[in-house]
């Protein structure tokens, strides 16, 4: 039985279609944070952490809603199935996504996304990869050792140099998985 959240990265999902599909307020675009606020309380009540949600694709087709969950003992396929059923029910009632989409619920895997300051605190001392929105000291990509995690920034050591990177300026951050 696999209980390591860094293992295989289970995915459980389904395909959904919305007739009306317009988010509250009628806008066609749905911010991932809106979906997160909708799903997080239910996922946490089930005993899991909602690490990240992302909606990719366009409302004209090919959308994928991914929800990454974690728990102290790791994630099993059955965990993904249970969360998928609950999340599906909420999405059916609230109807925040226009058009057809696929729902995928999985563990964060070995390249776990780092989304909140507490994620950086928890994985201090690990290898990370950070992509900044704009160049910081002449570069946007930083792969190195997570030396420090503050409330507003993380310090990543790359080739012996320490870079203080603002969370607000980060486009994406992940742990670097072991090959």
Plain-language structure description:
- Strands 8-7-6-5-9 form a 5-stranded antiparallel beta sheet.
- It folds into 2 domains: 96 residues, GMP Synthetase, Chain A, domain 3; 59 residues, SH3 type barrels.
- The chain contains 3 helices and 9 strands, in the order βαββαβαβββββ.
- Helix content is 21%, strand content 40%.
- Helix 1 packs across helix 2.
- The longest helix is centred in the middle third of the chain and has 18 residues.
- It is α+β, with helices and mostly antiparallel strands.
User: How many alpha or pi helices?
Assistant: 3
Q: How much of the polypeptide forms β-strand, as a percent range?
A: 35-45%
What is the arithmetic mean of pLDDT? 83
Helix proportion range: 10-25%
**CATH structural fold name of the largest domain:** GMP Synthetase, Chain A, domain 3
Structural class: alpha+beta
Biggest β-sheet, characterized? 5 strands, antiparallel
Name the shape in a single word.
globular
Nearest-angstrom radius of gyration?
A: 17 Å
Adjacency order of strands in the biggest sheet: 8-7-6-5-9
Number of domains: 2
> How would you name the CATH homologous superfamily of the largest domain?
RimP-like superfamily, N-terminal
E-strand count: 9
Query: What is the CATH class designation of the largest domain?
Result: Alpha Beta
List low-pLDDT spans.
1-29
Distance between the termini: 21 Å
- Overall CATH architecture of the largest domain: 2-Layer Sandwich
Q: Summarize the helix and strand pattern as letters.
A: EHEEHEHEEEEE
């Amino acid at each position: 039985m696999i209980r390591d959240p860094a293992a295989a990265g289970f995915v459980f999902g389904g395909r959904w279609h919305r007739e009306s599909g317009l988010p509250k307020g009628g806008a066609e675009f749905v911010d991932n944070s809106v979906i997160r606020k909708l799903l997080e309380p239910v996922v946490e009540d089930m005993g899991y952490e909602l690490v990240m949600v992302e909606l990719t694709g366009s409302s004209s087709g090919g959308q994928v809603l991914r929800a990454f969950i974690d728990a102290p003992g790791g994630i099993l396929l059955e965990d993904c199935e249970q969360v998928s059923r609950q999340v599906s029910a909420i999405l059916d009632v609230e109807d925040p996504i226009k058009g057809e989409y696929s729902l995928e619920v999985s563990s964060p895997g070995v390249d776990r996304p780092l989304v909140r300051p507490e994620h950086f605190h928890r994985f201090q001392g690990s290898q990370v990869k950070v992509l900044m929105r704009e160049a910081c000291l002449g570069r946007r990509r930083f792969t190195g050792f997570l030396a420090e995690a503050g409330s507003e920034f993380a310090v990543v050591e790359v080739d012996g140099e320490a870079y203080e990177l603002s969370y607000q300026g980060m486009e994406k951050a992940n742990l670097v998985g072991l090959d």
